[in-house]
Design a protein that fits this description.
The protein is α/β, with parallel strands linked by helices and 401 residues long. The protein contains 15 helices and twelve strands. The strands form three sheets. The chain has an eight-stranded mixed beta sheet with strand order 2-3-6-7-8-9-10-12, sandwiched between helices. A two-stranded antiparallel sheet has the order 1-11. A two-stranded parallel ribbon has the order 4-5. β6, α9 and β7 form a beta-alpha-beta unit. α1 packs antiparallel against α14, α8 packs parallel to α9 and α13 runs parallel beside α14. The chain is globular. The protein starts with a helix and ends with a helix.
Length: 401
Amino acid sequence: MSALIIAAARRSSGAFSRALAASPWAVTHGASATPREPAWTRRSSSSATSSSAAQSEAMSAFRERLAEGPDFGDFVRGDELPGTAYSLAAPKNLRDKSVRKPPWMKRTIPGGDRYTEIKAKLRELKLSTVCEEARCPNLGECWGGGDGHTATATIMIMGDTCTRACRFCAVKTSKTPPPLDPEEPENVAKAIAAWGLDYVVLTSVDRDELPDQGAGHVAETIRRLKSSAPDLLVEALTPDFRGEAELVREVAASGLDVFAHNVETVPELQTEVRDRRANWDQSVGVLRDAKRFVPSLITKTSLMLGLGETRPQVVNALKLLREAGVDVVTFGQYMRPTKRHLAVKEYLTPEAFEAYKKIAEDMGFLYVASGPMVRSSYRAGEYFLENVLKQRKAEAAKATA
């Protein structure tokens, strides 16, 4: 799985340049122009009209400059790129009303019959979802399915209270959470069978107070799911189990299809963002061990952006993940759950997320999901089914032909 990362990264320069040339924010900065306020924030129609000619001229100059660059290195360094091309500023504090959330960060309130049905069943079986606990903005979209999308649910097992306190996470924390529910594995299997889902993501809180940190509970839940619905695809977004290899092995060998564990952010921001018991090397080691124990397993991780990371730091993180054999990576915009959590440093534009996607794809990742509203489990079934399983089936058919 390890590719020639540096060479692959260089190949991404052309793709990024083409994406940049076609993007709407490129018009805000010419070869020698002063950075302009983004078009979507201008409220005066006369001002917008008078600026159109200047923007057209700036676009022409920018396209000429793209013939000679910017290349991959320019993107990573941020050289010769308009400030709005990469991100927009976030509010300086909670009282700052001068900066509004970008339009691409807005979502509709979840609802509909499918959403109501799943929520009622969750309450009946006393199950939790990370979709609700972490206040995910895509809840209604993932639960609803339909319109050609695969219905996906992310069930949070081992309770709704975590023993860790990461500074980005809205899940409740306690040193002594309630005991595990021994009926939970069976209840999860019943719920998924009743919903008729195609793909389920199991995630969990950390349970550092337990002798096996909950590894046995996670593995048993996966086995029950596979027993009740053999065709169901199961992804497990696991804790780090403090890096204990045998616990990782127990979950990896339980029959799941995708082993996921999130590094959350770049190596340089780990201590600022995550609980002190979590770190980059430990998380990457978990992903590496899962692949080592079950080579056919697909491994997956996620990075939040907008926490103050730099472009070179993100690209370096991707290189390290590929070197560890990680197959799938997702990028999403960090959103502050409450005023007690880390503040958002910047809002990356959709075009910046697209640029990172191309870079990751050129590095050799099996699949990349990247966008402001993407979360680690966002429409996981659709992405996985369409972009990985179909490819593997085609390859198997070709081999037997």
